[in-house]
Amino acid sequence: MIRIAGAGLAGLTSALELARRGAKVTVYDRASGPGKGSVARYAGGMLAPWCERESADDAVVTLGRDAVEWWSGVTAVTRLGTLVVAPPRDRQEVARFARRTSDFTPVDGAGIAELEPALGGRFDQGLHFTKEAHLNPRQALIDLTMASRDAGVSFRWATEAPAGVTLDCTGPAANLPGLRPVRGEMAILQCPEVEITRTVRLLHPRIPLYLVPRGAGIYMIGATMIESSSTRPPTLRSISELLSAAFTLHPGFAEASILEIGAGLRPAYGNNLPRLTRHGGGWALNGLYRHGFLLAPAMAKHVADTLLSETSHEHPRECPAA
């Protein structure tokens, strides 16, 4: 029997991968149901390894390139790519982004208008990462739980994990050496007047923005990174900057309704790559940070390979490609 502490993204993907290979798995979580206690509910859900390479290690591309197919077997995935744009005054940001990434198609103003008519006439150049995709994190956590249950995983909700679990996936609560909390802030907007179908990244020197459609005129917006361990709600300045960036993307967002504003602390190691490490008498998977949905499938396979192998490894194990 494999016992997992934490029914967040790391715990659920690991449970499913282990169960698919015939293991008997029980997952314990303090929350009352799927996704309710996971910081992954504040994620963008972007499956964008080539875009992420702009500020991340090569391992993000190596490990993340198969994530779209893995998630497509669990939940709905929108495969329309990622569109990267910048205001005309910041067009040098597009060139800089292009130098640090790959697997994109350059697009001019007409190309942007063809991909996203709502953005026609607003931007004169951009990059289209055609193989990227996105999903709805909250629905994905529910679907992941259901898939795990169908595969034979047992869940103990509103229950503290017993001592000596096989795999600890409790995020910052695990208190592992070298692990730090990184703050993520987001807002969910409803704006039926603006129709955007794919993930859009707006490059801006002060606050780079990503916008992810959720369907029915609903959008999630967030900033790429906030180095803070504060647990306080988002500040007025922070949310104002997010909303200002959304207005820069399209002025129609000035009339958007704000459905939700949230913040969560996501676990990260110094190199921002996840690690599978020895912890107590078992293992710990942690540090998924902002690449969570992108890297979780590869790390779950790594967990299954390790836990089900005949030989144990006493040394820390990071990303398989790190």
Q: What strand order characterises the main sheet?
A: 6-7-5-12-13-14-11-15
Q: Mind describing the biggest β-sheet?
A: 8 strands, mixed
Oligomer: single chain
Kindly name the structural category.
alpha/beta
Low-confidence stretches: 310-314
Count of strand segments = 18
CATH architecture of the largest domain: 3-Layer(aba) Sandwich
Could you walk me through the main structural features you see in this protein, from its secondary elements to its overall organization?
This protein folds into two domains: 2-51 and 136-179 and 270-318, Rossmann fold (3-Layer(aba) Sandwich), CATH 3.40.50; 82-130 and 180-267, D-Amino Acid Oxidase, Chain A, domain 2, CATH 3.30.9. 28% of the residues lie in helices and 26% in strands. The chain contains nine helices and 18 strands. It has helices at residues 9-20, 49-52, 58-64, 67-72, 91-100, 109-115, 137-150, 236-249, 292-307, and strands spanning 2-5, 25-28, 46-47, 77-78, 82-85, 105-108, 125-129, 133-135, 154-156, 167-168, 180-190, 199-202, 209-215, 218-223, 257-268, 275-279, 282-286, 317-318. Strand 13 and strand 14 (218-223) form a beta hairpin. Helix 1 (9-20) runs parallel beside helix 7 (137-150) and helix 1 packs across helix 9 (292-307).
